[in-house]
């Protein structure tokens, strides 16, 4: 397949960067006013939605209409669900310990340090990770089986994320579970159903962009970066370091897959 509109796509990259930056700056202003930088986690999903919508408008007259609508809807559904979930989860809570620890190292003004180390960094990641969403909207050919396979993988990912989050929320809401490790439902098949779901979502969106070799080459960095972050970066690895000393976690980890879902091993 040929005819990928490189000039128009280059202009879109700048517009997408502006959209991601705008969302993060608004989040920063709200966070400073409230004195609560965990708000940036809500902006993460919102930023992807903004990039998808801006790219959809910018790509009018380019690419395949069905693919443009599909990738915009899938990204927006994923991003808004995540933003709403994180906003509800954080309601009534103080600062996230991760940001408190980071800002305690600030050499000067904490807010300006947060702007550089949290908001601008996450805005850059939103722009980078969203490359499949941006590139897919400029692919000129019609949807193929590869794109529908990507949509199916996205759906699997959204299922694991949404169901896993709901199961964990119900578990934490029961006072009888205080101090216990969640090991039920999807959490009995993988220690991180929400991170595995995120993994599937971004590999799925990448496949939708793969009907053009040019867009596939541009987009490949996104699922690779997300996979690293989810498994070795700020996802699984960081959370398990935090959970390592919790009673029952070692036994749970011994019988439950670390990432990809597998039948749980029998309890000892």
UniProtKB/TrEMBL annotation:
TM stretches of this protein: 12-32, 39-60, 113-133, 145-163
Full protein name: Uncharacterized protein
InterPro entries in alphabetical order: UstE-like
Q: Which residues form a coiled coil?
A: none
Keyword entries, A-Z: Membrane, Transmembrane, Transmembrane helix
Q: Which Gene3D superfamilies match?
A: 1.20.120.1630
Give the matching Pfam families: DUF1295
PROSITE patterns, per the entry:
S5A_REDUCTASE
- From what organism does this protein derive? Streptomyces populi
Q: Which domain of life is it from?
A: Bacteria
**A GO term from the CC aspect:** membrane
């Amino acid at each position: 397949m040929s005819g990928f509109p490189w000039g128009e796509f280059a202009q879109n990259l700048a517009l997408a960067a502006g959209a991601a930056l705008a969302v993060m700056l608004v989040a920063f202003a709200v966070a400073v006013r409230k004195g609560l930088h965990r708000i940036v986690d809500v902006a993460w999903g919102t930023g992807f939605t903004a990039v998808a919508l801006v790219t959809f408008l910018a790509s009018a007259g380019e690419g395949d209409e069905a693919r443009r609508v599909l990738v915009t809807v899938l990204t927006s559904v994923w991003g808004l669900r995540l933003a709403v979930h994180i906003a509800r989860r954080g309601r009534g809570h103080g600062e996230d310990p991760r940001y408190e620890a980071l800002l305690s190292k600030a050499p000067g003004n904490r807010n300006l340090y947060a702007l550089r180390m949290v908001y601008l960094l996450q805005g850059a990641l939103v722009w980078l990770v969203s490359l499949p969403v941006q590139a897919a909207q400029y692919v000129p050919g019609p949807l193929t089986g590869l794109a529908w396979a990507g949509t199916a993988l996205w759906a699997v990912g959204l299922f694991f994320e949404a169901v896993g989050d709901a199961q964990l929320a119900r578990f934490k809401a029961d006072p009888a579970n205080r101090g216990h490790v969640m090991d039920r439902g999807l959490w009995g098949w993988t220690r991180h159903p929400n991170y595995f779901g995120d993994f599937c979502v971004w590999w799925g969106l990448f496949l939708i962009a793969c009907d053009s070799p040019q867009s596939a080459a541009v987009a490949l960095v996104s699922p690779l970066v997300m996979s690293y972050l989810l498994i070795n970066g700020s996802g699984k690895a960081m959370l398990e370091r935090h959970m390592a000393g919790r009673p029952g976690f070692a036994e749970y980890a011994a019988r439950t897959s670390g990432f990809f879902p597998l039948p749980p091993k029998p309890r000892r």
